[in-house]
Every structure is written in structure tokens, then in C-alpha cells.
Design a protein that fits this description.
GO terms for molecular function: mannan endo-1,6-alpha-mannosidase activity. The protein has 446 residues and is mainly alpha-helical. 51% of the residues lie in helices and 4% in strands. It contains 14 helices and four strands. Strands 1, 2, 3 and 4 form a four-stranded antiparallel sheet that branches. Strand 3 and strand 4 form a beta hairpin. The longest helix has 35 residues. Bound molecules: 2-acetamido-2-deoxy-beta-D-glucopyranose (11 copies).
Length: 446
């Protein structure tokens, strides 16, 4: 612990978050402080910063995640303070084809990175978030275009299908197929299906991605676990068994959208099953935790934000499948109280920590901790009338085309060909220069 970090604790506790989980006003006051904490990391407002990005070391994908957290903040409390900032941030990062592949990211972007921005866009549509200006892409267009480019990467050459983790061959992880990329496609597809009601365009894809996840055993319907993924070599039999909360979160809520839309028992069973499987992310005190890394203090930057998505997607699940609500409320009530007592750190006296079961602030801080705390606390609002998830015909005003974006866009092929071309060109030049030098040498000697 750094010495400055305990000074506020010694000086005062008046700024600490005093949360009464049965009072919407109290929830709002707590969330407002934490939302400001999230936006403290927003880089777009700083001189020399980039619109839509959060400060170092937070990667681009987490910005998409954090903007999603803030869209829900605006919805839950009808608070417009950050609305224009959020709209500007998202529109700046859409890229040429409105599918969240901005040029700055295209050398490192993975399917999982892209989908978290697409999810922010469909969420904006479902929340009837203020629409972008008419000369920009709509929320629905952005979400649909993201889905379209992702589904084009479906790869039957190994593991019987699925998306690879990475989009580009030169990135570590191109040889890996994982749950987050495929569950991301499944989740986004399920939401687009429910929002648009376009069965012919989305239904097959949603079933195909879920069934594939089951076939390769990334999902287990006996234990209701969602594992990390597997190497392409060996056709996805070389598995990595880590359990990350955002994987289960994408699957449980995607299933909940499907149940809400189709009314089918299989989706009901899956939703209820994965809600029970979420218990691996609650510690011995009933408080949400990232079980794969927190005990060993090895959670990396990205992983420290995963509980934000678990919270957001469990809250959606509780609304979409009313039978899951009691269990999810229990998860939230215990966790929210623990979060509030943890948010007593930092200069401001209300920075949130990582281990919420620790008494007080555990000295960890960052965008991930702050987002996670915000999502836990604002999710309590589902019990105070904030429980509508709109579609296109019952109040969602975002309109768009399911064929939006560039449906034939395959950046990997294009960039790789250029790359190979350049490399080949370079070797030919090297060979020609080499031969010239040898020949010149021969003539000089002779
Ligand atoms: C919490 O809020 C509820 C509803 O506003 C109120 O009835 C109750 O007295 C509050 N509890 C405390 C301890 O302030
Ligand atoms: C709206 O949210 C901002 C940011 O958290 C907060 O400062 C402000 O007080 C909120 N507005 C109201 C009316 O509570
Ligand atoms: C891309 O990076 C440049 C240089 O840092 C920056 O000026 C620009 O705003 C960035 N564009 C996006 C979409 O992030
Ligand atoms: C939207 O939801 C309503 C129920 O709230 C339903 O009647 C309607 O069919 C849905 N629209 C679409 C496009 O699925
Ligand atoms: C679904 O989208 C496709 C492609 O745009 C379109 O041809 C079809 O009419 C749509 N179906 C519905 C029910 O909107
Ligand atoms: C499985 O993958 C790991 C890398 O994650 C590798 O070290 C190991 O050799 C692989 N095992 C087999 C049997 O291919
Ligand atoms: C759903 O679960 C119930 C209870 O376990 C079982 O009887 C039923 O067959 C399941 N339905 C489907 C479609 O899996
Ligand atoms: C969090 O803190 C509590 C209380 O100190 C401790 O019992 C628990 O093991 C910690 N949890 C983790 C995951 O480290
Ligand atoms: C579907 O979701 C809505 C929330 O938008 C909820 O009110 C409704 O009860 C759900 N329908 C079913 C069948 O669970
Ligand atoms: C959605 O937003 C539109 C445009 O701002 C507005 O006219 C409409 O009343 C809103 N609908 C709901 C259900 O809030
Ligand atoms: C779609 O992207 C491909 C590259 O993958 C490009 O060749 C094509 O021109 C693009 N189409 C449009 C309409 O921009």
C-alpha cells in the first residue's frame, strides 16, 4: 500500500458510500459517485487524449465495455450528464464500415474486442438511448454491422466451425478458438433477433453458435460451466479450463434473450442452469469475485473488469426470465452491500477496491474495479421499475438495416495478401541485389 492511499482513510470517512439497497435515492447517490470515478479514466476529455479511449493501460475493448456501463447508468437514473460524451465516443470508434474496426485497432483487434463495442450499440438501441445524428450510423446499424463481419469469420476448417479468437493471422491467439468470441457472436445475435424480430436472418446463427460451443465442450450443460477455449491444433481438444465470469455472463444472458423471444423450454433450462452455475463467481460470503485469479492476486487489467459484464448481463437475465430473478437478487443484494463498504479508498475517499469481502478498501483500484462496482450497484434498479428491455416495435426508436455495414468485408484476406506480397517483393529485391554484388565481384576479380 502506498502511503498516500491511507491518508484519506485517516482524515475522514464522510465521503464513504452509505448504501441502503432498498432506497432508490441511496442507490442513485452511490452510483453517481462511482460513475464519476469511471469517467475519471476517460481519455477523450484530456488534452492530447483520443475520443472514445480510456487512459493507459486500458485497452480499446475495455473502453467499449466502460461505455456500455455508462449507457446503463444514463438509463437507470435518467441522467444525461454524460450522454453527449458517450455518443461522441462511440461514433468516433466505428471505423470505415460502421463495424467497430477503426484503423488504429486493426493490427491487434480480436473478435472479442470488437463484440464488446457491438454490444454497447445494441444496448443503446434497447435502452432507447439518444440516437446519433441522422448523418451517422444508427445504434442498430452499428450492432448489425458488427454481427455481419463477425459471422463472416466462421471457420469450418478446424473444430467443426467457430470463430478464432483473433481476426488476424499475425496475432497471438489466431490459433485459438474461444468462448468469449463465439459466445459474443451468440449473445449479439440473440439481442439483434429479439430487437428486430428477423428470424430468417438471425435464428440459425444463434442456434449454430450455441450448438457449436456445446459440441466442442466449451459449455457443459451438466455442470453449467463455460470454459475458456482450446487450441485449433488438435481440433479444439486441447482445452483451457479457466472459468472467467464474462464468458458465463454472455451465455446466460444470450439464453435469456432467446427464452424471452421464443418461449422455448430449452432456453429456459439453459438460462436457469447457467444462473445456478454463476455461483462459482460468488465467494464464501456470497459476494461476487473473479474466482480464477483473485485468490492468487494474479488478475490482469482486462480481468479486473469482468465482473462489470457479469453484473450487467445477470441484471438483463433477471428481467428477461422472471423465474431467475430471486436468485439473481440474492446475488446482488449481498454483493452491493459489500461493494459499498469497499468504496472508501483513494484521494477522493470513495474509490472502490477489488476484493469486496475485505473489510474496507483493499488498496486495489482502476477502471475495471470502478466499472464492476458501478454495474453491481446500478443493477439494483431493476427492482425499482427500471426493467424494460425494448425492441423495435415496443418503444425502441433505433432503426437500421440488418444488412448494414459491408456484409462481404473480410479484412484479414485483404491485409494478409498485401503483407505476403510485400514480403515476397522484398525477398526478390534482396536476391537481385545479392546476385548483382556477386556478379560485380566476379567481374572485378576477373
Ligand atoms: C432504507 O430505505 C428505506 C426505503 O427508503 C427506508 O424505509 C429505510 O428506513 C432505510 N433504512 C435505513 C437504515 O436508513
Ligand atoms: C447526474 O450524474 C452526474 C454524474 O454522476 C452527477 O454528478 C449529477 O449529480 C447527477 N444529476 C442528478 C440530478 O443527480
Ligand atoms: C488514431 O490514432 C491517432 C494518433 O494517436 C489519433 O490522432 C486518432 O484520433 C486515432 N483515431 C481513432 C479512431 O482512435
Ligand atoms: C416486441 O415486444 C412486444 C412485447 O413487448 C411483442 O409484442 C412484439 O412482437 C415484439 N416485437 C418484435 C419485433 O419482436
Ligand atoms: C430480414 O432481413 C432480410 C435481409 O434484409 C430481409 O430480406 C427480410 O425481409 C427480413 N425479414 C423480416 C421479417 O424483417
Ligand atoms: C496444448 O496446448 C498447450 C499450449 O496452450 C501446449 O503447451 C501443449 O503442448 C498442448 N498439448 C497438446 C497435447 O497438444
Ligand atoms: C428442461 O428441464 C426439465 C427439468 O429438468 C426437463 O424435464 C425437460 O426435459 C427439459 N427440457 C428441455 C427441452 O431440455
Ligand atoms: C477477500 O478478503 C477476505 C477478508 O479478508 C478474505 O477472507 C478472502 O479470502 C479474500 N478473497 C480473495 C478472493 O482473496
Ligand atoms: C420478456 O422481457 C420483458 C422485459 O422487457 C419482461 O417484462 C417479460 O416478462 C419477459 N417475458 C417472458 C415471457 O419472460
Ligand atoms: C424513444 O426515443 C424517442 C426519440 O427520442 C422518443 O420519441 C420516444 O418517446 C422514446 N420511447 C420511449 C419508450 O421512451
Ligand atoms: C467491402 O469490403 C471488401 C473488402 O473486404 C471490399 O473489397 C469491398 O469493396 C467493400 N464493399 C463496399 C461496398 O465498400
Amino acid at each position: 500500500m502506498r502511503i498516500w492511499s491511507i491518508i484519506p482513510l485517516l482524515l475522514s470517512t464522510v465521503t464513504a458510500i452509505d448504501l441502503n439497497i432498498t432506497s432508490p435515492d441511496s442507490i442513485y447517490s452511490a452510483a453517481a459517485l462511482i460513475a464519476d470515478g469511471v469517467m475519471d479514466y476517460y481519455w477523450g476529455k484530456d488534452p492530447g487524449g483520443t475520443i472514445g479511449m480510456f487512459t493507459h493501460p486500458y485497452y480499446w475493448w475495455e473502453a467499449g465495455g466502460a461505455l456500455g456501463s455508462m449507457i446503463d447508468y444514463c438509463y437507470y437514473f435518467d441522467n444525461d450528464t454524460y450522454t453527449n460524451t458517450i455518443i461522441e465516443a462511440i461514433l468516433y470508434q466505428t471505423g470505415e464500415y460502421n463495424n467497430f474496426m477503426p484503423l488504429n485497432q486493426t493490427t491487434t483487434e480480436g473478435n472479442d474486442d470488437q463484440v464488446f463495442w457491438g454490444i454497447a450499440a445494441i444496448q443503446a438501441a434497447e435502452r432507447n438511448f439518444t440516437n446519433p445524428p441522422s448523418n451517422a450510423a444508427s445504434w442498430l446499424d452499428l450492432a448489425a454491422a458488427t454481427f455481419n463481419t463477425m459471422k463472416n469469420r466462421w471457420d469450418e476448417e478446424s473444430c467443426g466451425g467457430g470463430l478464432r479468437w483473433q481476426i488476424f493471422q499475425w496475432n497471438n491467439g489466431y490459433d485459438y478458438k474461444n468462448t468469449v468470441s463465439n459466445a459474443g457472436l451468440f449473445h449479439l445475435g440473440a439481442r439483434l433477433l429479439r430487437y428486430t424480430g428477423n428470424d430468417s436472418y438471425y435464428l440459425d446463427w444463434v442456434d449454430r453458435t450455441y450448438d457449436w460451443l456445446l459440441d466442442v465442450k466449451f459449455l457443459d450443460e451438466n455442470t453449467w460451466r463455460a470454459y475458456d477455449g482450446a487450441q485449433v491444433v488438435g481440433d479444439c481438444t486441447n482445452m483451457t479450463y479457466y472459468l472467467w465470469s464474462y464468458n458465463l455472463a454472455l451465455v446466460v444472458s444470450g439464453s435469456a434473450y432467446m427464452y424471452n423471444y421464443t418461449g422455448e423450454e430449452k432456453w429456459y433450462n439453459r438460462t436457469m442452469g447457467f444462473v445456478s452455475g454463476a455461483n462459482v463467481f460468488f465467494d464464501e460470503y456470497g459476494v461476487m469475485y473473479e474466482s480464477a485469479c483473485m485468490r492468487h492476486h494474479t488478475c490482469q487489467t482486462d480481468q479486473r473488469s469482468f465482473r462489470a459484464y457479469l453484473s450487467r448481463f445477470l441484471a438483463l437475465t433477471a428481467v428477461l426470465v422472471p423465474d431467475s430473478r430471486d436468485t439473481i437478487n440474492t446475488y446482488f443484494d449481498t454483493t452491493a452491500k459489500a461493494v459499498a463498504q469497499s468504496c472508501v479508498g483513494g484521494y477522493d475517499g470513495h474509490t472502490c477496491g477489488m476484493n469486496w469481502s475485505y473489510s474496507g478498501w483493499d488498496t486495489y483500484y482502476g477502471l475495471g474495479e470502478e466499472m464492476s462496482a458501478l454495474e453491481v450497484i446500478q443493477s439494483l434498479m431493476i427492482n425499482f421499475g427500471k426493467d424494460t428491455i425494448l425492441n423495435m416495435t415496443d418503444g425502441g426508436s433505433s432503426r437500421g438495416d440488418v444488412l448494414s455495414g459491408n456484409t462481404t468485408y473480410k479484412p484479414e484476406a485483404k491485409l494478409l495478401d498485401l503483407d505476403k506480397g510485400d514480403t515476397a517483393g522484398a525477398s526478390i529485391i534482396t536476391v537481385i541485389i545479392g546476385i548483382t554484388i556477386i556478379l560485380l565481384g566476379y567481374f572485378v576479380i576477373v
